[in-house]
Design goal:
four-stranded parallel sheet; 22% strand; alpha/beta
Length: 165
Amino acid sequence: MANSIIQSSLLSLDTLTQIQDAAIAIVHTEWNEHIVSAQIEGAQRIFEAQQVKNIKYYTVPGAFEMPFACQALIHSKICPDAIICFGAVIQGGTPHFDYVCKAVVEGITQLNASSKIPIIFGVLTLNNEAQAWERLGGAHGHKGEEAAIAALKMIQLNRTIKAAN
């Protein structure tokens, strides 16, 4: 795993037990595909290390479409144990960046608060492409790996809560 300035306990996999059967959906954008591919590769490294094999991939045109895809998955027969959203929105010369970022954050937040499964926010909101690489193995760790770890931890938490009821 990439080094990160965040607490190493957040990246620890030690508390994960019996998670190999987890079903995970990755919703990812076509925009900035080279960045998104690196996010997915990081997540795949974590899943391989944890022997999680049931991963399905769903492509959407852009970040704005992510909440729709997540909602469709939540309400489908194939509802996974968690959804990870990967994308990269890079600041341009118009306010479009602000509108897209606000919409995707609000959409995923709303779904996360009302859903029976966790939805992990792995959308990078960046001023420039160099910032992406700082977050994909550089000084800020690897956000693809971190999203996979968060998904697995949230699946385990959800299962623990359900078992207690």
